[in-house]
Specification:
This protein has a domain at 30-73. By secondary structure, it is mainly alpha-helical. It has helices spanning 31-44, 49-56, 60-73.
Length: 75
């Protein structure tokens, strides 16, 4: 009986395996992510960040961070 050698498969390390995780717990999602689409929409309508933050009940820093995050997600 003749056995032919087969090439072995390459061993994949954990760093080569792509995984994707969805956040399901609503409480664990940061506030700026929750409001990001609203902020971006209002900004595109020409509303100033100060008015957006006042309208949504967040501080100015949060409104700007939400807009940056939303823009990065839409690229």
């Amino acid at each position: 009986m003749l056995l032919l050698a087969r090439p072995s498969e390459r061993i994949r390390t954990a760093s080569e395996i792509l995984i994707e995780v969805e956040l399901r717990d609503e409480a664990s999602v940061p506030a700026y992510m929750k409001i990001s689409e609203k902020v971006l929409h209002l900004r595109r309508l020409g509303m100033a960040y100060s008015k957006i933050s006042e309208h949504l009940g967040v501080n100015l820093w949060m409104a700007k961070k939400a807009a940056r995050w939303a823009k990065a997600q839409n690229k």
